[in-house]
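Late entry, evening session. Most of the bench is empty. Finally got around to the prediction I had been postponing all week. Sequence below, unchanged from the version circulated by S.P.
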Amino acid sequence: MGRETILTLLKTADGQYLSGAEMSRALGITRAAVWKSIESLRQDGYEIDSLPNRGYRLHHSPDRLSVGELAWRLSDGPIGRELICLDQVDSTNSELKRRAAEGAQEGLVVLADQQTGGRGRLGRSFSSPEGKGLYLSALLSPALPPSDVVNLTAWVAVAVCDAIERAAGVRPGIKWTNDIILNQKKLCGILTEMSMEAESDTLQYVVAGIGINVSQDESDFGDLTSVATSLKLGTGLSVPRAELAAAVINALNEMYQDFPRNKAAYLSRYRTDCLSVGREVRLLRGNHSEPVFAQSVDDDFRLVVRYPDGRLETVSAGEVSVRGLLGYI
């Protein structure tokens, strides 16, 4: 982790020079080790100035996800105390579940530059091209019965909207229950997965997975260009993924501190952000689809729908999906 701690020092120096001797003393390593880490960072695209008798100064950073890029941006909280940044993985959720089975502690966050098998709800795939998105999963272990955690996806959705607003200056909406929408197209998907002990029906852990399209162009979406977007396409901004990742982790920590005792506040914010309400949508159960009107979100984050004959039904995310009649939402 030598180069990552060196990067953290350079980042927190805020454009000032740091001498090799200062970094050597701070980290308890040799000046030769400091130089070696600096050279490694330069090879990865970091522009680092150096001057005799002054030391090193970070001039420019590439759009990379690493511990050194993230750690100094994070507020205090359990989520993100341990970070693992991978170049490639099948799925950050799958990787985190493997690590949880091996005894990983609550708060571990796994990020990847690329997913080869990104997943969404109901086994759907999630496109995760290299270097163009934020693919992140966090391990949570709330001391609660499983029934009290079924609405966590909605809480995470609000937190993700908070993070995107902070990092990009625009607040997206939520398509009930787990898709984040910008300009009527899908920007982000959320997948929460629980592990329970069968004999006692007790919750072991929850994995909250988040995939955000950051810098994709229309050509990256192919046939999905009519329903998918990125922050770059939706705002015209180039948002550094490390900045966005830190905003997501910080927002998750704020949410987790409130969960589940501050339900009323998050329910109110979810209702405000939810774009499905007040629209004609299709209710999808397996291969069956029928038109309904999304009337409201009830006190348990379930969707209240009205059929053409006036009949009302309250549906949960585990049972159905919704899709717009004239577009994605």
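Two things to note before I forget:
The first strand starts at residue 47 and ends at 51.
The chain has three domains: 2-60, 67-273, 280-324.
Will write this up properly tomorrow.
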